[in-house]
Amino acid sequence: MADWPDSILRRFRAVPPNPRENDFYGPWNKLLSYVFPPASDFTVAPQSYLLSTSRETADIVVEYEIFYNNVPVLIVKIKPPGNLRLPSAREEAGTQIRRRIRELSEDCLLPTLHAVSAFGTQLAFYSKAKDYQIVPGGIPPDPVLLTDTAPLDW
Fold first, then answer.
1. Which distant-in-sequence residues (6+ apart) come within 8 Å of 86 by Cβ?
2. Other C-beta atoms within 10 Å of 55: how many?
């Protein structure tokens, strides 16, 4: 495990009990800005957009896209930590991160585009090498059986 500076660890420790998704935006921004310094050729670009899930509800998706000289190299998508226990929330997060990987992978000049789906500080790692499928592979839902399409141990 990396030895993070105290300022980053304090920021994550300051997240309240029973946190909301946006309680993690600051800590993640601080961590990513440390790993990808502003004075470097990397840019940490926070993104948010509305995802209409039905006629009655909409979900605001928040992610960080990290670019190296305007080329995507990493995607970090943040979700509420309490939702990790919900198979449907993990499935939706997996669908969203896979969709974003597909959208950005053609612009990635590196051999592999990496992505992280973060439920607070619990992480699932994804990647897509040129001309290959996204890893881990998708688990299709079964029309009859309950299928966990984004297992908790990912």
1. none
2. 6
Between residues 151 and 27, the one the model is more confident about: 27
Cβ-defined contacts of 142-148 (< 8 Å, 24+): 146/87, 148/87, 148/90, 148/91
Domain ranges of the chain: 6-135
To the question of pTM greater than 0.70 for the whole model, the response is yes
Q: Are 107 and 72 in contact (CB under 8 A)?
A: yes
* Number of other CB atoms surrounding residue 68 within 10 Å: 16
CB of 135 within 8 A of CB of 125? Answer: no
Residue-wise DSSP of the chain: -----HHHHHHHHTSPSS--GGGGHHHHHHHHHHHS-TTSSEEEEEEEEEEE-SSS-EEEEEEEEEEETTEEEEEEEEE-GGGGG-HHHHHHHHHHHHHHHHHHHTT--SSEEEEEEEETTEEEEEEEETTS-EESPP-PPPSSS---SS-TT-
What's the confidence (pLDDT) of residue 1?
Answer: 47
Q: Report the pLDDT averaged over residues 114-131.
A: 90
